[in-house]
Amino acid sequence: MSETIFSKIIRKEIPATIVFENDKVLAFNDINPKAPVHVLIIPKQEIARVTDLKPAEHAEMLSELFSAANKVAEELGIAKDGFRLVINCGKNAGQEVEHLHIHLLGGKPLGWSPG
Ligand code: AMP
Question: What domains, with CATH codes, occur in the chain?
Fold first, then answer.
């Protein structure tokens, strides 16, 4: 895959408000938040989209991503009331950045009408 802006965020070449980091995962505030809490959780490994995932190869990384989502939700105080995780894949979902990412949204009751 070709490099995206998220690779530059991983390398700290452009600024982002980082809320969690370990050797496999980075989580930072979305620059255009759609909810009071809107964090993007990304693997440091460059994978463009969900359809590029291979269960055997990426199982540990996926587990790390979801663990990070839970940890950030807990630390930002939205775990108890609930939150939404969204992964856009491709054109019809409106995926803008071709680096796999989970949107973590919360901090208010969320509507549901993505279609
Ligand atoms: P998606 O449409 O699922 O590909 O989501 C991409 C997300 O990346 C959007 O919500 C953007 O607001 C967000 N985004 C793009 N550039 C940046 C950036 N430099 N820092 C933080 N979030 C960004």
Answer: 5-106 (3.30.428.10)
Nearest atom (ligand 1) to Cα of 38: 10
pTM for the whole thing?
Answer: 0.97
Q: Which residue of 10, 11, 12, 97 sits with most ligand 1 atoms within 8 Å of its CB, as the best mutation to test the pocket?
A: 97
User: pLDDT tens track of the chain, all 115 residues?
Assistant: 679 999 999 999 999 999 999 999 999 999 999 999 999 999 999 999 999 999 899 999 999 999 999 999 999 999 999 999 999 999 999 999 999 999 999 999 999 988 8
Residues 6+ apart with CB under 8 A from 70: 79
Can you say whether residue 94 is alpha, beta or left, with left for phi > 0 and alpha for psi between -120 and 50 degrees?
A: left
- Known catalytic residue: 103? no
